[in-house]
């Protein structure tokens, strides 16, 4: 059994490596964080809100993987328990959606459409990974518990109200 401290350390490391590169380093590489088109203030404000909400959701999800699941989002160090609480009661893929929100927010804040294109490509890659690897792997690992969760909670379009009864963790 993995300790909570090891799960936290592993999740923190993966947070820097995966989302840090995907939502930080690559957008910087594409834009240099330079302002592009002077989009209206409400659009830039919406971008800031998306960045903040996405970052909060991402950090919360990573924390849940470590503290509730006793593992990481990284495939080589998966959770010991299926994570079904918090944002996972509304949508099965909050981490991917959070990363996309951060990148879309950067595009709006900076007035850089190239980041919207990057987000679209990334969204396609996320969907392919989830359907091609993640869902089959979770079904094998957690069996009926994952299938019940999958039936109760949508994968990509968040519910407005949480699932009434999450499967037992």
Considering DSSP H and I runs of 4 or more, what fraction of the residues is helical?
55-70%
Strand content: under 5%
Largest sheet: none
Helix/strand structural class? mainly alpha
- Integer-rounded radius of gyration: 17 Å
Number of strands: 0
Number of continuous helical runs? 5
> How many distinct folded domains?
1
Poorly predicted residue ranges = none
Give the overall silhouette.
globular
Kindly, what is the distance between the CA atoms of the first and last residues, rounded to a whole number of angstroms? 16 Å
Could you report the average pLDDT, rounded to the nearest whole number?
A: 93
Q: Helix and strand succession?
A: HHHHH
Oligomer: single chain
């Amino acid at each position: 059994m993995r300790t909570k401290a090891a799960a936290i350390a592993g999740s923190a490391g993966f947070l820097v490596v995966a989302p840090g590169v995907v939502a930080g380093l690559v957008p910087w590489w594409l834009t240099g964080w330079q302002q592009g088109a002077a989009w209206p203030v409400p659009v830039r404000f919406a971008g800031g809100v998306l960045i903040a909400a996405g970052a909060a959701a991402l950090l919360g999800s990573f924390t849940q993987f470590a503290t509730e699941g006793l593992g990481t989002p990284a495939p080589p160090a998966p959770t010991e328990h299926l994570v079904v609480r918090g944002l996972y009661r509304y949508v099965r893929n909050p981490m991917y959606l959070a990363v996309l929100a951060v990148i879309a927010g950067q595009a709006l804040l900076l007035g850089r459409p190239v980041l919207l294109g990057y987000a679209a490509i990334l969204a396609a890659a996320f969907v392919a990974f989830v359907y091609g690897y993640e869902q089959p792997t979770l079904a094998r690992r957690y069996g009926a518990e994952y299938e019940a969760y999958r039936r109760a909670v949508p994968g990509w379009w968040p519910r407005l109200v949480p699932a009434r009864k999450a499967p037992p963790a």
